[in-house]
Prior knowledge:
Blueprint: H1 5-24, H2 26-40, H3 45-49, H4 57-64, H5 70-81, E1 95-98, E2 109-111, H6 114-135, E3 145-148, E4 165-167, H7 169-175, H8 179-182, E5 185-186, H9 189-192, H10 197-208, E6 213-218, H11 220-234, E7 248-251, H12 257-265, E8 273-280, E9 283-290, E10 293-298, E11 304-310, E12 322-323, E13 332-339, E14 346-357, E15 360-367, E16 371-372, E17 379-380, H13 381-395, E18 398-407, E19 416-425, H14 430-444, H15 446-452, E20 462-465, H16 470-477, H17 495-506
Parallel strand pairs: 1-4, 3-5, 3-6, 6-7, 7-8, 19-20
Antiparallel strand pairs: 1-2, 8-9, 9-10, 10-15, 11-12, 11-13, 13-14, 14-15, 16-17, 18-19
Amino acid sequence: MIDFTPIARQYFAHRLQEIQRFVDYSESVQREQLATLLGCASYTEYGQKYRFPAIRGYNDFSNTLPLTTYEDLKPHIQRMIRGEKSILWPGRVDKFAQSSGTSDGKSKYIPITNDALKKNHYQGASDVVALYLNMNPQSRIFSGKAFILGGSFANSVDYAAPGTQIGDLSASLIKNINPMANMMRVPSKSVALMENWDEKLPALVAASLNSNITNISGVPSWFLTVIREVMKAAGARSIHDVWPNLEVFFHGGISFDPYREQYQSITDPQKMHFVETYNASEGFFASQSSFDTNAMLLLLDIGVFYEFIPIDQIDEERPMVLPLWEISAGETYALVITSCNGLWRYKIGDTVYIESTSPLKIRIAGRTKSYINAFGEELMVHNANAAITYACVATGAQITDFTAAPVYTTEQSKGHHQWLIEFAKMPSSLKAFTEALDSQLQHENSDYEAKRYNDIFLAAPEVVVAKNGIFDTWLGMTGKRGGQRKVPRLCNDRKIINQLLELNKKKQ
């Protein structure tokens, strides 16, 4: 196949100049985004309610519009699903992304407007490639095809208007992609949008096995399953034995750190690059822009206006809310977005750590509701990911999936954390793994360390080994099995872990 990468570099050169502009003038660019969003939605029902045409600048905006959650916007979104027009965004919206799910398993349906597709999701994906080409002068990414792992339109609601599509975000992205882009990717739409994962997995293997794959995109845990099946079918020990020109994995959805060693063991380090992205159902927000750090550059000119709530203000009734020009490096914030999919001052549920403010680079710290704070330990997902990674390295283990929850104090026992972990490779010693996990959690989190002091408030963690496939089985039972589904890492209650433990007892 002809290498089109040199031509692509010329195409992306202009975009790199625009990216440099929002790096240099972040406040001005974000104020422009806000003005554009308000102007576009001025005559929607929501825009009329909050008098968008009268808003002059950020202070007016923040004083006029309330902070929102999905529950606040849900009645509006339900009306949009029924086919009503110009509620949160101009015109009719006929595409909705079912979110990965909340800790209680309920689904969210996020509007995917035509503007969101074009200005945000597709532009964000394009920016990832532009930034990668800038990072890798030797790239030949357009000498072959992209393997994009996506979901399906397996979901529906009984009140949806005719023609309304509901499913994984990736399904809408694949279905509506430019036909020219389809020529550069596998699998075909018919395979990519298959609903039954048991049928889809072998079809993905067949579609990619003999293709010239140069880049892959998806969630690390699910793609690892696909790659292993491809290697098994080819009788290969490295994925580069199958796809010799593979050079980059664009990954997102969950932390890559617990899977990094497994990917490194099946790829050629001289050829392979890993690029983290932040692409959620609610929008495409950020991409890694340097191999020196996996912190991600926040994309400031693609239809999203950002605000930030300091981590210690999350549970306040009227929290402090800051625009990006008032935040500080080294701090963690809850992310608030206003975007061209009709989400207004929407608390997305993610927390981000600010690596730097110029350029504005972030790391995903975790979820505002995905944490354990049963004993005042305030354990966040990024603490858990770092500790799991450390314990794996220390004991030679590899993991497939995990979740954790508190075990509350009783008359017979002290409170502690219980970890259910499915290992791809068992540690040399489960006891040593547990001790390494506990030690690193204390290193990562001073609140956890204080509560663990002399076992006074919090006893040592307990690790339960999950039987092979238990997390896949649970995801299937909850209707969440697929390329973009993921298991909640931390929960402050025992609802999910109890379901999994029951399955673990039954599974043979």
